[in-house]
């Protein structure tokens, strides 16, 4: 980015612009760009590149064969199952919450918004801990669950609950400001003309918020698949059964299986890259909130 | 701003059911579990509670978590501002790509950034190999923890400062410069006052995220007794020893910090909005 060859071109172009004539401001400009990009490169680009470099360290064969490991496959299945349950639920919640908050005025609205944001401020470890305290053997419902032979903590339901908590705000946060900004006029017109509530939502509201919704859902999905702290507390780390992809990455890394760990990490990194690409594509379209 | 306080008949349906569903879901997933934490802590008698949260090991972990988060958020305030400025004011090749990659820490799983950072900053790693001969050790030190927390908090500062920088009135700057003000004067008297609330909000968001962070830290921290143990890690240790009430007590401390941070963020945003209103 900004290789030496292009410096001259840009500098030449800058000289033609009004207000940027003096040499010092050009110097400041290039200094700032260089500092910012170095910071970004060392902190973001290098780790991302390292994931793929380490994954392919022993070549493509080693890379692909690491996915034939049964524990790794089980972790991918578990992560997909978790996301398939968590993301739709949080999407429904996000749309409902956004409708309620953006379309109506009521007391305690700002408290409600703060409470929806709360999981973002809570440490992931605490997010997992609360479910252990609630459903663990010594928890509130521990004995009752034991009597009925239901296991929540150290099993799939616990992983789903913890993931749901952590990714709870994403869809709602994307939609609330967007729907507030769009206002009520078109919905009011539709309702006044006799359209039903559902019809209004699907035919009037949804088309206008769809890009924001898409980004919210995709971000929620990326966070759900990648959650580590909260899930590691409730998982109990039972091999082949309660290990999600991030937990399996940790296990492989601690066993010094670097290719295995980074190969699995590369899948999640690709997911992150795809998420950002979709974000960039969606940006600037109507019905997307630019931050 | 919408018509606040102005009551007008609302024809849109679904208020009762959406509010009900939202409150129910919120209570079941967020509020009930969080109250379990508070009540579990309350079950601990006072002297034991103090013993747990004020043990030398806990105090060392707070110092580390707070210290590293404070440094990381400050570094982000400086470089995050530089990045936001670069993205808003300058045009350079690859600007769009840079703008897109800023959000990486939001989308990248923390465990992935954790193992990647631990690898590149290890003694043989891409960056670590140049630092080690100079006596700078990153892996398994508080410095490594700070770097991980900087990565995690970076987008918060950039993404809050960016819109604020767009709000800066360029004509005001031009006017000041025409009247003979120097660049630094313009920066200090026009730009800084406009973006200050956003900058502080970004700082607080980055700090709040960093204090609770776990995944990206544990790999590079090395988790040495009393030296590189962050508070969330101590909670995990208590849980592994089946000391649930003690884990809850530490979790309660962290939760209190989260609430204080949320309050600070909300107050900062109110302050920022008020300043914005006055300046218009």
Describe it for me?
The complex is a heterodimer of chains A (about 290) and B (about 280). Chain A is mainly α. In chain A, about 75% of the residues lie in helices and about 0% in strands. In chain A, helix 4 (about 70-105) packs across helix 13 and helix 11 (about 195-225) packs antiparallel against helix 14 (about 260-280). Chain B is mainly α. Chain B has a single domain (about 60-280), classed as MetI-like fold (Orthogonal Bundle), CATH 1.10.3720. The model of chain B has no long low-confidence stretch (mean pLDDT about 90). Chains A and B meet through helix 2, helix 4, helix 5, helix 6 and helix 8 of A and helix 1, helix 3, helix 4, helix 5 and helix 6 of B.
Furnish the topology, listing elements before pairings.
The complex is a heterodimer of chains A (291) and B (280).
Chain A: H1 4-15, H2 23-55, H3 59-65, H4 70-103, H5 109-121, H6 124-135, H7 142-147, H8 156-167, H9 170-182, H10 185-192, H11 197-226, H12 229-235, H13 245-254, H14 258-282
Helix pairs in contact in A: 2-14, 4-8, 4-9, 4-11, 4-13, 6-8, 6-12, 8-11, 8-12, 9-11, 10-11, 11-14, 13-14
Chain B: H1 15-42, H2 46-53, H3 56-89, H4 95-101, H5 104-107, H6 110-120, H7 128-131, H8 142-167, H9 170-178, H10 183-212, H11 215-221, H12 231-240, H13 244-279
Helix pairs in contact in B: 1-13, 2-13, 3-8, 3-10, 6-8, 6-11, 8-10, 8-11, 9-10, 10-13, 12-13
Mean pLDDT level of chain B: 89
Question: How large is the share of residues in beta strands of chain A?
Answer: under 5%
* Largest sheet descriptor of chain B: none
**SS-derived structural category of chain A:** mainly alpha
CATH superfamily of chain B: MetI-like
Distance between the termini of chain B: 14 Å
Largest sheet of chain A: none
What's the assembly state of these chains? heterodimer
**In CATH, what is the class of the largest domain in chain A?**
Mainly Alpha
Count every beta strand of chain B, where a strand is a DSSP E run of 2 or more residues.
0
Q: How helix-rich are the residues of chain A, as a percent range?
A: over 70%
Which CATH-level-2 architecture of chain B? Answer: Orthogonal Bundle
Give the overall silhouette of chain B: globular
Spans of chain A of 5+ residues with little confidence (pLDDT < 50)?
1-5
Task: Evaluate the radius of gyration of chain B.
Answer: 23 Å
Order of helices and strands of chain B: HHHHHHHHHHHHH
* CATH class term of chain B: Mainly Alpha
Q: Based on helices, strands and strand pairing, what is the structural class of chain B?
A: mainly alpha
Number of strands of chain A: 0
Number of helices of chain A: 14
């Amino acid at each position: 980015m900004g290789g030496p060859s292009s410096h001259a071109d840009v500098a030449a172009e800058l000289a033609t612009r009004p207000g940027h004539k003096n040499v010092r401001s050009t110097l400041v400009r290039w200094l700032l760009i260089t500092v910012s990009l170095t910071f970004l490169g060392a902190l973001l680009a290098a780790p991302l590149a390292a994931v793929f470099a380490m994954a392919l360290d022993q070549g493509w064969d080693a890379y692909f064969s690491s996915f034939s490991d049964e524990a790794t496959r089980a972790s991918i299945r578990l992560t997909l199952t978790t996301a398939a349950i968590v993301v739709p639920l949080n999407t429904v919640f996000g749309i409902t919450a956004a409708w309620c908050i953006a379309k109506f005025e009521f007391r305690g609205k700002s408290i409600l918004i703060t409470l929806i944001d709360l999981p973002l401020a809570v440490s992931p470890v605490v997010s997992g801990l609360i479910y252990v305290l609630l459903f663990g053997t010594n928890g509130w419902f521990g004995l009752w669950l034991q009597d009925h032979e239901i296991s929540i903590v150290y099993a799939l339901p616990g992983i789903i609950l913890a993931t749901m908590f952590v990714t709870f705000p994403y869809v709602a946060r994307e939609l609330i400001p967007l729907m507030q900004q769009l206002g009520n006029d078109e919905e009011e017109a539709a309702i006044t003309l006799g359209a039903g509530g559902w019809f209004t939502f699907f035919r009037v509201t949804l088309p206008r918020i769809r890009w924001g919704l898409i980004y919210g859902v995709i971000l929620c999905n990326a966070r759900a698949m990648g959650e580590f702290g909260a899930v590691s507390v409730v998982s109990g780390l039972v091999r082949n059964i309660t290990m999600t992809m991030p937990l399996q990455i940790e296990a492989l890394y601690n066993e010094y299986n670097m290719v295995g760990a980074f190969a699995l990490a590369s899948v999640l990194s690709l997911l992150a890259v795809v998420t950002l690409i979709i974000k960039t594509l969606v940006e600037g379209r109507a019905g997307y909130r630019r931050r | 701003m919408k018509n606040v306080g102005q009551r007008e008949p609302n024809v849109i349906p679904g208020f009762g059911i959406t509010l009900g569903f939202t409150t129910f879901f919120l209570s079941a997933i967020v509020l009930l579990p969080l109250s379990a934490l508070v009540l579990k802590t309350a079950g601990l008698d006072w002297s034991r509670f103090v013993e747990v949260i004020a043990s030398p090991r806990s105090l060392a972990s707070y110092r580390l978590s707070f210290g590293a988060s404070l440094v990381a958020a400050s570094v982000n305030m400086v470089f995050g501002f530089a990045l936001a400025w670069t993205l808003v004011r300058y045009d350079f090749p690859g600007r769009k790509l840079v703008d897109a990659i800023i959000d990486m820490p939001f989308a990248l799983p923390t465990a992935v950034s954790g193992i990647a950072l631990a690898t590149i900053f290890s003694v043989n790693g891409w960056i670590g190999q140049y630092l080690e001969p100079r006596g700078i050790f990153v892996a398994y030190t508080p410095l490594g923890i700070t770097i991980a927390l900087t990565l995690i908090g970076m987008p918060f500062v950039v993404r809050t400062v960016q819109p604020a920088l767009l709000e800066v009135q360029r004509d005001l700057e031009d006017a000041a410069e025409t009247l003979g003000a120097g660049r630094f004067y313009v920066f200090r008297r026009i730009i800084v006052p406009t973006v200050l609330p956003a900058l502080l909000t970004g700082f607080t968001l980055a700090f709040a995220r960093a204090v609770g962070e776990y995944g990206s830290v544990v790999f590079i921290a090395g988790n040495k007794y009393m030296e590189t143990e962050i508070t969330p890690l101590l909670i995990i240790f208590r849980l592994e020893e089946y000391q649930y009430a003690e884990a809850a007590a530490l979790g309660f401390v962290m939760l209190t910090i989260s609430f204080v941070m949320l309050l600070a963020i909300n107050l900062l945003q109110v302050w920022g909005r008020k300043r914005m209103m006055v300046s218009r």
